[in-house]
């Protein structure tokens, strides 16, 4: 561990882990912010699990005939180093709607600009680093009343605490974090559920006294279900049954179900744990293959120095090896019923343990389903899960645990656009005891290792997946991979054609017969991101975009009319991206490939999370880790991640 890692955005760790970095003095407060800016200088109810399907919630409703209209005048790139706002095209407006520290409900503590709220306050306030998000409409007024469910991926420790993070050096030479700070960080991770309504005056507002408003955090108890629940690999000294976990964190992108539940996905969890025993780590696939931190302390926040369960070093004297299996209890899909504010979140082990970006549904008219996942690390894989049962709109009880049984597949993106899904099923092919897989729990806990053995195709950091309304065509963003073609296990191939790949690509496929459970598919590249062909940059930085340029596609979402919205996550201060401007939201026509820039964000931020009303007239996006003073925009208030509401001034459909 180097102190510098503490400064790094979890998403960026992969990209930064081989750059030279400065080492702060031991014991000195650390600056965790990856992009430095001088403040003020630079510049019903509810149906839920047992309810009826929710109006407007069908994920694969057919698009209206013909191509979607894309009518706005695109924005220019935003290259001002002091840009501290969100800009949208003429005819649109955007405003911050729900920022880090906002009270979750009426009576909860207000955010204090000096960040002096303690961890108990934080449990009752919006978390940090808003990411994936979904709008769940109420059936009686789907376009004017719903629940927004929002992931809080990580924390900006520089801003979360009044004077940044504290690390003390104790007499034994070890660096430690104060419990009060760690608890505030645990509380600022997780998920928000907030009720939203368009009032009679036409303005969208939060419903502050809602019974649905809720924070789920890294301190919230939840249960494990499915084939791995209760098995030895999930047992710990504090949970000898292997069925109860405290918390979820690293919730990046998301999924949802047609039965009205939210799927929070656990992405960069390996960096929150440490196994200090190098030999044990090397021989333990569930640690080594996922790159659980190894060394003196964990990669990110040093939580293990205040909360023992994050220290996954084996303890032979303790039951179940102490907390050595604690990292095995993260990396799952967490199903949350937003309409049941007292419900216990459920980790669904049948869907496999990954560094999981998303869990995007595809639903056939007859109720057969697939969920698509990206494992966002260089050279990892694209997966899908096919439940054994069908979605039954008229039988909510049958849907309740649909995610507990089914088949996990990993993708092979072969030559000529030929694609194949290979099952990760114990006893099939190489997934046997001789290869370390004694049962299906072993396969699910070490899904990456299983995927290695069946010959999956290594991909350029799979992020979000989006499924096109109507024909269920599937799009995945492969954000970038500077090691593509530079290391033996990641050779250049058709789906990942550039070496090094600094700007990423979007790939798409159609399942055979457009059938979600199909095991064969046909894929093609939708676009390579990067600069235009006529730009004065190295050839490796030139893409194939028809329209406005961008790098590092991350968030991907289809609106109900079939427009493809693309969100970006690149280092807007880095030399390869300086001419790209700040991070962006773009709108693409999936038929023509034309791309138009719809929104530019404040300096230092990532644009992520996107959802809207079924009528397309309200759109929410997230501005994650802004760099200067957004949303205050006054140049000195500390910046706060925030959900932003976008509307058209004439009340029309966004994008037209
Ligand atoms: Fe948290 Fe892969 O983005
Ligand atoms: Ca992020
Ligand atoms: Ca992401
Ligand atoms: Ca990213």
Overview of this protein structure:
This protein is 8% helix and 27% strand. The strands form 8 sheets. The chain has a 9-stranded antiparallel beta sheet with strand order 17-18-20-21-22-27-26-25-24, with no helix packed on it. It has a 6-stranded mixed beta sheet with strand order 10-9-16-15-12-11, with no helix packed on it. Strands 2, 3, 6, 7 and 8 form a 5-stranded antiparallel beta sheet that branches. The chain is globular and about 65 Å long. A hairpin with a 6-residue loop joins β33 and β34. It is mainly beta and 656 residues long. The chain has a domain at 4-59 and 149-167 and 220-298 and 308-598. The protein has 9 helices and 35 strands. The structure holds MU-OXO-diiron and calcium ion (3 copies). One calcium ion binds at residues 11, 463, 479, 554, 569. One calcium ion binds at residues 11, 131, 153, 569, 606, 608, 624.
């Amino acid at each position: 561990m180097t102190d510098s890692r503490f400064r790094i955005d979890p998403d960026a760790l992969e990209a930064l882990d081989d750059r030279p970095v400065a080492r702060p003095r031991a014991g000195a407060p650390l600056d965790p912010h990856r992009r430095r800016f001088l403040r003020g200088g630079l510049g019903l109810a509810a149906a839920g699990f047992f309810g009826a399907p929710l109006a407007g919630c069908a994920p694969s409703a057919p698009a209206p005939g013909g191509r979607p209209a894309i009518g706005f005048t695109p924005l220019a790139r935003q290259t001002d180093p002091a840009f501290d706002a969100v800009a949208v095209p003429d005819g649109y407006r955007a405003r911050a709607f729900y920022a880090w520290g906002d009270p979750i409900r009426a009576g909860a503590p207000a955010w204090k600009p000096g960040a002096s709220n303690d961890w108990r306050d934080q449990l009752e306030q919006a978390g940090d680093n808003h990411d994936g998000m979904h709008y769940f409409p109420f059936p009686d007024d789907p376009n004017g009343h719903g629940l927004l469910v929002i992931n809080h991926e990580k924390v900006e420790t520089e801003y979360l605490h009044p004077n940044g993070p504290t690390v003390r050096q104790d007499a034994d030479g070890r660096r430690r974090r104060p419990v009060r700070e760690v608890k505030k960080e645990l509380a600022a991770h997780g998920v928000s559920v907030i009720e939203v309504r368009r009032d009679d005056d036409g303005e969208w507002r939060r419903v502050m006294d809602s019974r649905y408003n809720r924070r789920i955090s890294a301190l919230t108890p939840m249960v494990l279900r499915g084939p791995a629940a209760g098995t030895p690999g999930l047992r710990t000294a504090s949970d000898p049954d292997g069925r109860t976990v405290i918390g979820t964190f690293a919730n990046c992108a998301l999924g949802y179900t047609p039965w009205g539940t939210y799927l929070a996905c656990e992405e960069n969890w390996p960096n929150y744990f440490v196994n200090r025993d190098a030999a044990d780590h090397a021989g333990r696939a569930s640690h080594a293959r996922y790159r659980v931190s190894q060394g003196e302390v964990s990669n990110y926040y040093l939580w293990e120095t205040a909360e023992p369960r994050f220290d996954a070093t084996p303890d032979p004297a303790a039951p179940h090896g102490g907390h050595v299996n604690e990292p095995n209890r993260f990396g799952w899909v967490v199903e949350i019923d937003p309409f049941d504010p007292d419900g216990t979140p459920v980790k669904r082990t049948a869907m496999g343990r990954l560094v999981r970006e998303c869990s995007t549904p595809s639903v056939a008219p007859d109720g057969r389903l697939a969920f698509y996942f990206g494992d966002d690390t260089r050279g990892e894989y694209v997966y899908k899960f096919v439940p054994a049962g069908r979605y039954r709109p008229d039988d909510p009880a049958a849907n309740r645990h649909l995610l507990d049984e089914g088949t996990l597949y990993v993708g092979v993106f072969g030559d000529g656009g030929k694609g194949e899904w290979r099952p990760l099923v114990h006893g099939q092919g190489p997934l046997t005891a001789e290869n370390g897989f004694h049962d299906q729990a072993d396969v699910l806990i070490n899904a990456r290792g299983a995927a290695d053995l069946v010959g999956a195709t290594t991909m350029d950091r799979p992020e979000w997946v989006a499924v096109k309304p109507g024909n269920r065509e599937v799009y995945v963003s492969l954000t970038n991979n500077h090691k593509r073609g530079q290391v033996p296990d990641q050779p250049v191939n058709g789906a990942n054609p550039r070496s090094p790949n600094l700007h990423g690509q979007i790939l798409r496929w159609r399942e055979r017969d457009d059938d979600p459970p199909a095991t064969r598919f046909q894929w093609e590249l939708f676009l390579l991101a990067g600069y235009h062909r006529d730009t004065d940059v190295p050839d490796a930085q030139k893409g194939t975009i028809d329209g406005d340029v961008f790098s590092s596609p991350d968030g991907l979402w289809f609106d109900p009319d079939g427009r493809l919205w693309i969100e970006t996550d690149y280092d807007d201060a880095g030399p390869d991206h300086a001419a790209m401007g700040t991070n962006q939201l773009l709108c693409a026509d999936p038929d023509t490939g034309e791309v138009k820039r719809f929104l530019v964000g404040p300096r230092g931020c990532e644009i992520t999370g996107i959802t809207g009303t079924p009528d397309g007239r309200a759109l929410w996006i997230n501005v994650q880790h802004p760099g200067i003073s957004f949303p205050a925009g006054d140049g000195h208030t500390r910046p706060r991640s925030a959900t932003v509401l976008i509307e058209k001034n004439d009340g029309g459909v966004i994008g037209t």
